[in-house]
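#structure-requests
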Amino acid sequence: MDLMKWTNPAPRDLWEAFDGLRGDMDRALDFFHGPEAAGIFDQTTAPAIDVIETADEYIVVADLPGVDKRDLNVTVTGSILAIQGDKREEHKTEKRKVFRKETWVGSFKRTIDLPEQIDSSKISAELKDGVLAIRIGKREEAKTKLINVQAN
């Protein structure tokens, strides 16, 4: 086997340097991603959340499959929205054997810092088909207003 001389050209810019550093770190930590550990480090224990802004409101959408309405608590304190609850495990039986489990169970809490322009008197929440949609109205002064431009 012949040895090759290692050459590492200087990066052309800062982003290329970061890409090189990331590649080096990925290679150094690659042993964590072996087949025997697949799925262990990449599991989440809280629901995924999207925050969407429209002209009149903010909409927070959370994926909560398997969470019952009675196990869910949504609160707003100032501009902090908190979603917390419990996702219970399906019934266990001795006749079933789980070969792979990627879904999560247990207690969770997510907090989102919303902009100061929210109107806490205009909040509604709906859980439908495992998706929680929270609608939070904006205060009148925060809403986008159309200004008519006149030409002479």
